[in-house]
Fold this protein.
Amino acid sequence: MAKIHSLLDVGKRGMMVSQSALQTTSHNIANKSTEGYSRQRVDIETNPAIDDGRFRLGTGSQIGSISRVGNPWLEKQIEREGSSYAFLEGRSGAMQRVEAVFNEQSVKGLNNSMSEFFNSFRELANNPESTVSRTVVRDNAVGMIKNFQSMDEQIDAVKNDLNKTIETGVNEVNGYVKEIATLNQKIQAAEISDRATANDERDRRDLLVKKLSEKLDISYAEDSKSGMLNITAGKTGVLVAGTSASTLSTATNENNETQIMYELSKGGTSVDITDQFKRGALGGSIELRDGMVADLKSQLEELSYNIASEVNNAHAEGFDRYNIEGVNFFNIPADGKYTLRDLSVNKAINDDVGRIAAAAKPNAPGDNTVANVIHSLQFKRVMSGGQATFDDFYNSKVGQIGIASQRLNSGLESQKNILDQLKNTREAVSGVSLDEEATKMIEYQKAFEASARVIKMADEMFDTVLNLKRL
Amino acid sequence: MRVTDKMNQIQVMNNIQKNRGELSSLQNQAATMKRVNRPSDDPVAVAKILLNRTENKNIEQFDKNIFFAKSFLDSTEASLSQVGEALVRVKELALQAASDTNGGTPREMISSEVSQIYNSLVEIANRRSGERYIFAGHKTLNAPFNNEGEYAGDDGEIKIQNQKGQFVTMNLTGDRIFLGRGVGGDDLIKPSTDTPQTVEEVQKYKLSEADRQFQNQELMENKIETRGPASVGRVQRLGNQDPVSGGSGVNIFTLISGLDAALKANDREGIQDALEPLDQALNQVNIARADIGGRMNQLNATADANQKSSIENKTQTSQIEDADLFQVMTELNRTDAALKGSLETSHKLMSMSLLDFLK
């Protein structure tokens, strides 16, 4: 049999449910712009009914659960694609700088100074007696070396930048890892009672996993019992195991490359796990640094070394103004450890341009045979196993950089589209809509008002009952 | 589909970013007037542009070389034309002196003019272009001839590049023009016509040069000198062919100094003997002048060809590198309108909310 008391109860519970629902709605509105936030939904269900004679009598509502609205599969996809996007994006900035080093569309670069170098030998061949044309040869040689060296330095600067990116990236990763471990603990504590889900903590943890994945390759799995997330970086770097977090560190190797190190046990030895990263921004930086940037550096060295040694060989066949056999035109180390920093014009020639050997025989100031040989080197196929001239080699490098950069840009654009599309879908599912929340606010507010009215009505019913005698 | 506020924001941001990106790229094209501003704009075009630039710089240099060689040949030609005139005058004088009834001009007087001409010939043979003696072969910094007409230069050819892989000899050596060495079949080995372009070639060239010099020197030393009339001098042939060396070159200096001696000695036969060699000397000079003419033609032809390929080159570079301004401007207007459109609609899209109507 229905009792007035239970009516009071229904009203009270209704008010409480509406209030909780309103609180959640307010929470949604307040977190509309919070990164990684999923809108929360109050699942209202009926309170257990009671037997009322032949019937079951409803006793109002209660809150079943407060849950996140989201699609875990979508989140996983965003994490994957975000990692791929970060992999491209991590390279694009540095790639643009590399491209700028080889860009001769607005400034004069190596292509120009190589031309000038060989043309100065043509000028020398026109007039081997002239000190002026000899000086021009020397100055153009110095100019070409400067150009080579400045490109080399710029490439080194890009490399250092990438090293710095890796270093700061590892620091960020460590920050995320610690927070995830803390969140693991909070989630476990909050979810001990079987009905509660730690919505906000889980949102935050999902976001951090995405951010982590944007930095490097991770694999992760949630422990279904404790709700804790275990994360491994690369193949072997266990970052989060339950509530404990291990951090990565960086070290610089002999090639001035920043390596990512993982400590096998607390205070134990660290191993280099740089090679395990093929994704995320760090993976991108590592790939660019150890791939294209390192290649370009060695190719510039190869080009300059070949020019220098070919010119030296030809020059050695000649005789200078003092009828002495040609010295080395360029200084290059004989021990094979060649870097661009070592390249210079021989001091003897630098001090006295008369030492430039243009003639093929002594006592012949008008002989330009060797000068002719040296400038003919411009058309000789020396590079790539006798397939390409110096110019071909350099131009094809510029072309290759252009292609790489172009491909990266288009890859970045399409990956951004994919990611945007996924994020859009996520927003459609989990995002907060103010219109919707406003509607709900009205709905729950009205429900709250009506529940209050129920209590008032029950109160009046008590009055009616109590006043029965007086009637 | 459920559309939330953030979706609107992302969409608006993306569209505006995209429009601005396009606008900035177009603006850059309009400002630089170039379609290709970075290698990634068109990698294939960039490689081609660089190649064309190098080629153009080479052509510019070849043009300079050609101009230089032409002016050198011009001064050689001017000198040789003077030599020719001098020889004609000597011939006239010799003819005059060869007859006993020469109008009474004493041979002594003719001799003084001839020796004047001799001096001027030495002066011409030592002529310079800039700081270099044009007839000295490779020994360009020393006067090739002394007053006795002895040659101190060599037979080195100065080769100037006029095209990729092609060289033109720009000098004529004094031993050939004035001493008649290497003219006709005197067995002297001439310098190789090939220009060494690699280290291996230059090594071979050096060896063959040394060999050649040695053989030529031996040939000169072993030559049995025949003593001809004073007017013809030593090591000169009688008739068209030297009976010993087989050469047909004329040593102009000994010829003229011999003529001078014959004039002074009043040796009519000696003077007559000089007449035919004088013709041959003139011939020798004219052949050299014809040679210059041939080289000039060759240089002019390559200059024309270079000019043509330079223009083609520039046209091609412009086609692949330069922006089509009309197209850029059209695109610019279109993108500008699109940006304005997105900005305007963004305002409407983002400012609308149910909350505005719940009063």
The first strand of chain A starts at residue 40 and ends at 46.
